[in-house]
Design brief:
alpha+beta, elongated
Length: about 100
């Protein structure tokens, strides 16, 4: 199992997540709204309202999922962080694999 962590504009979060789920690149996406991000961009400190998107997939699909996310994302430099959970319950892992069509390892 892999978790993809990204942030995006509020008006694009649902579309990004839906596309990756519909294309079976990820099994599930969670949208965490109301996030206030403070960051450096092009020499300035910026403050933006964003959505955190957490998406779950398999190791087999991570390259395809992150490439597609990059292609769909509106940011010049999107945050795309892949997390490898230390543990995941077996029944959830089985469901995840059945959704994204990855081979059982």
């Amino acid at each position: 199992m892999r978790v993809i962590f990204t942030t995006c504009r509020s008006d694009e979060a649902e579309e990004l997540a839906s596309r990756l789920v519909e294309e079976r690149l990820v099994a599930c996406a969670n949208l965490l709204t109301g996030v206030r991000s403070i960051f450096h961009w092009q020499g300035e400190v910026c403050r933006e309202e964003e959505v955190v998107v957490l998406m779950e997939t398999t190791a087999d699909r991570i390259d395809s999922a992150t490439a597609r996310l990059r292609a769909l994302h509106s940011y010049d430099v999107p945050k795309i962080i892949v997390i490898e959970p230390e543990r995941c319950n077996d029944d959830y892992r089985s469901w995840l694999r059945s959704v994204v069509g990855a081979a059982t390892r």
